[in-house]
Design a protein that fits this description.
Layout lengths: L3 E5 L3 H12 L3 E5 L11 E4 L2 E4 L10 H9 L6 E5 L2 E5 L2 E4 L3 H5 L6 H16 L6 H5 L4 H9 L1 H16 L8 H11 L10 E5 L4 H13 L3 E3 L4 E7 L2 E7 L3 H10 L5 E3 L2 E4 L3 H7 L5 H7 L3 E12 L8 E3 L9 E4 L13 E9 L4 H4 L2 H15 L8 E15 L18 E3 L12 H21 L6
Parallel strand pairs: 1-2, 1-13, 2-9, 6-15, 13-19
Antiparallel strand pairs: 3-4, 5-8, 6-7, 10-11, 11-12, 14-17, 14-18, 15-16, 16-17
Helix pairs in contact: 1-9, 1-15, 2-15, 4-8, 6-7, 6-8
The structure holds flavin-adenine dinucleotide.
């Protein structure tokens, strides 16, 4: 008999799991608490099109999601565009695309720039052997760089960037993070002095829509605005879900039967962040909970400005100066033509922070007021009346922060509760989280579930 699979979460991991299982003939039900699919890569309407709430692009190494685009007939939508990355320090914008740009970064002594470039080249071309994982996950980036790359490179280049992304954890992040980023980003460039980034014509929404319609065509059900309140466990097995009391829940109840507000499933996949998973799943043993909580999450706050004028010629402007209360500006219309947005200029002001930070609590207008004097540092002509419209989004689970030796702590996909699978961004390793890896995660979990069913080795058979 066809197994019924309940999937919690409608981001790229959940949507891909539903799509892949649908291809294999499973009956899938996907529950998403938000009113729309997409999760962290979700979009909002702007100037007659859609845009991601948080800036998104692909690297050339993001092959899983590009292949998924092709499979869904969207191959011709994938655009590869040269990126314009920069660095803002001491009131000056530096280009940061090629090795020559690095040599021009006069915020550190010339000799340190040469050393930095040589170390990056060494990591890129000599160290892409996966065996290095165990070597680099044991040591913090801070210790490694101070020893091999020099104090200046760490203190003036990496540390400010790490503080921006990882806050107070900056000194504790493993060297693996830098090594793998370098291997993937520089190693996958089409040329050393040029980086191309990918973006789907029509925004990430085109892939979200294509996945949604493919899942529905397979007979899969998608219930939006339907938070899962509880994973129901009986005798050590996950047997069903309790849903919030709304229309989608009633529809599921009518089709699936069940009593006491519980809809029953043969197997359940949870793609929610670990802290959200722990709110709905009790009965997990302490050692698994310890693994689930080994990675902490950094939150993100995004302010998006729709402007009459451009701020700078740069797409991605890193802001290492920590007296400036944001970590980067991402001027989307220096990447995708402003013509797509009726010639408006669109810029994200990005912040990664702890949820306890006052900036996480601030309203859109409070944030804008706090940011304006600093935006004027980047472009002294900037004035609030450039801004025609503004949006503000908060993401609690923006970035998992993994500790040293994390390969030994990753929570397995099979949870200790039979029939319950966990598939979230804390299991993406050694890569950094991203839509490509959530697609891969969705594919892997669907494959594993199918193998479990066929081999009768784990869960309901
Ligand atoms: C600011 C920012 C910039 C980024 N930039 C890029 C980029 O440039 N390129 C890139 O590839 N990636 C980028 N990412 C990362 C990328 O968006 C994520 O890695 C990816 O979308 C995660 O997908 P997911 O399905 O694993 O998780 P999520 O998208 O987090 O999906 C989990 C879903 O579960 C739902 N959920 C939680 N609890 C429940 C419940 N109880 N019941 C029902 N549903 C529930 C949530 O609402 C959510 O939709 C960025 C992320 C951020 C925040």
């Amino acid at each position: 008999m066809t197994q019924r699979i309940g999937i919690i979460g409608g981001g790229f991991a959940g949507m891909t799991a539903a799509y892949e299982l649908g291809k294999l003939g499973y009956q899938t039900w996907l529950f998403e608490s938000a009113p729309e699919l997409g999760g962290l890569a979700g979009t909002f309407p702007i100037e007659g099109t859609r845009l991601e709430r948080g800036y998104h692009h692909w690297f050339t190494s993001d092959t899983h999601i590009v292949a998924q685009m092709e499979e869904l007939g969207l191959g011709d939508r994938v655009q590869w565009i040269p990126s314009k990355t920069g660095w803002f320090e001491r009131g000056k914008i530096y280009n940061m695309v090629s090795p020559i740009d690095l040599l021009r970064l006069d915020t550190i002594p010339f000799i340190d720039r040469v050393r930095l470039g040589m170390v990056v080249a060494y990591l890129t071309y000599l160290q892409s052997n996966p065996k290095n994982l165990s070597k680099y996950e044991k040591i913090t980036a801070a210790n490694w760089w101070r020893k091999y790359g020099g104090n200046a490179a760490w203190d003036k280049v990496w540390l400010p960037m790490f503080r921006g992304k990882f806050g107070t954890e900056a000194e504790n992040i493993s060297m693996l993070f830098i090594w793998y980023k370098i291997v993937l980003r520089i190693g996958s460039r089409r040329g050393v002095s040029k980086e191309e980034l990918g973006y789907p014509h029509g925004s990430f929404q085109v892939l979200i829509d294509a996945l949604e319609s493919a899942i529905r065509k397979q007979g899969g059900k998608i219930c939006l605005s339907t938070p899962v309140k509880r994973v129901v466990v009986e005798n050590g097995s996950a047997v069903g879900l309790q849903l919030a009391d709304n229309e989608a829940a009633q529809m599921a109840q009518r089709e699936l039967g069940g009593t006491d507000g519980t809809v029953r499933f043969d197997r359940i996949i949870c793609t929610a962040p670990s802290f959200a998973t722990l709110k709905i799943v009790s009965d997990l043993p302490a050692d698994y909970v310890a693994r689930m909580t080994a990675a902490k999450y950094m939150a993100a706050v995004l302010v998006i400005l729709k402007m009459k004028q451009s701020m700078s010629p740069i797409y991605w402007l890193n802001i290492p100066d920590r007296s400036i209360p944001f970590v980067a500006t991402i001027e989307h219309t220096n990447f995708i033509s402003p013509e797509v947005y009726n010639n408006k200029r669109i810029m994200y002001v990005s912040n990664y922070l702890d949820q306890s930070s006052p900036y996480f609590q601030m309203s859109r207008d409070e944030l804008f007021k706090a940011y304006v004097p600093h935006l004027k540092k980047i472009n002294p002509n900037f004035s609030p009346d450039w801004v025609e419209e503004m949006w503000h989004f908060r993401e609690a689970a923006a970035q998992p922060i993994v500790p040293l030796n994390y390969s030994k702590m990753i929570p397995p996909y099979h949870t200790p509760l039979r029939n319950l699978y966990l598939a979230n961004t804390t299991q993406i390793y050694p890569e950094d989280r991203g839509t490509n890896y959530s697609v891969r995660l969705g594919q892997d979990i669907a494959k594993m579930l199918d193998e479990d069913v066929k081999s009768r080795t784990w869960g309901n058979n």
